[in-house]
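Protein in question kept underneath.
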Amino acid sequence: MSHPSHSAADQTTAEPAPGANDAPGSHLIVQLRVLGGLSAAAVIFWTIGWTVIQPFDPLGPISLLGMQRPVPTMGALALVGLVTGALAAVVAGRAASLMSPLGTAVGLAALNWRGAQSDKIGAYLARAGNDGPVWPTYQLILELWLWIGMIALAIPVGRWCAGRLCPRDPREPMETPAGGTTQTDQPTGMGVRMFPALVVGCLLAYVLMLVFSGSDVSGVFKQQIYFAVGTSFLISSMAGQLLFRPAVSWWPLVGVAVLGAVAYLSGEPPVNGESAYVAWRILPDVLARPLPIEYAALGAFGGLLGVRAGRALDAADLRGALSA
């Protein structure tokens, strides 16, 4: 009598979901540890991060523009971000590749909450001698990539710290290939699935940002920007993960870097050397209104959570249920 063979995919779906065999109440403990790690990250950046950055205008936007020593300041903030991300991963006790960048992103979002918005950048623009455009488009793009680099660097640092201070959980699909799962942060063929996920994710995030950001003539509100950026990348990255199943979990960070750069290039306001002082409170295009730190922090937060949600829905065979 022949016995039916089981494929690797069948073995993967037969694996218990994370938390399925946990003792009663352990899921609540995990949630409390995750919230504790993220809360600690927010408090550290709200206090220590603010002391490190020391903005020359406490009522101005949180940005490297106009800083006298931007390189040492960014280096010190990067150190705070790496320590904060590692602390969040250790406190949570699992999923270090998710918790460490989330901790850094939440900390940056908390730090930015103490500052103003992009409509006040015009107050810090330098006068152009030839009356040419003075809006710092490329400086904003570079700053955006620096913030994203800080968040991305927290992934290996947090994983390294958690691997030495926390017991390894073999049921975590984002941490280890144990149990036959294929959704690990391995570089094998990652470009084949990551590129279409990036294209779909960026296009969807672009449309959602236009919907959630309001009108060009309305004011710049921090709550709306936080909601628009975070929700747009949450939905878009979840869709990209469900459709193409990229192997790596950090691919939304690339999407944030690309979409943010396109937004700053396309939404550059026509600011000249004189108008920067006549109308210093400038309303940029809706896609260019988020500051670099807001694009990086909220985009990374929503994008990484979207990947996690997409993998959870994929494990529940959502696509098979919809096609049935």
About this structure: The chain has eleven helices and no strands.
